[in-house]
Amino acid sequence: MNANAKVLDSQQLLIHWQGHRNLTRRVIEAFSEKDLFEFSIGGMRPFAKLTLELLAIGGPALKSIVTGTISKFDESFNPTTKAEILEKWDEETETINEYFSQISEERFQEMFNLFGQYEFPIYQNILYFVDNEIHHRGQGYVYLRALGIEPPFFWERER
What we know:
5 helices, globular, mainly alpha, two-stranded antiparallel sheet
């Protein structure tokens, strides 16, 4: 066996993550503005609040990793429209692309104290970003179905 063999490289990981982001963006688009900000089931946060968490993680976390600065988790972005969320989503997508490409393959194994709270190898932090997004997007799917809206197919991530 080749000890240096990889399942995927960093570019493939970024493409995978961005595929999930493309899908989550389409879930945001599927909501009416009112329901995006107000609809909730069982005390869960409205989907707009869930997206604010996702926006506070990906781009800011990668910037922190690349610059080596430990920043606090910040959900202070306070949009009032779906258009503002989508605009910020697109901005953060570009931030992710910019900073992800600055992480060398070797650095993915380095420990990093994300937001001053989570001490894990960089690759584990990135996998968490994807897992967390999938988790919250699943909540969005439940909301859309409860509202009588057919959510996007979960396997269509390329649009």
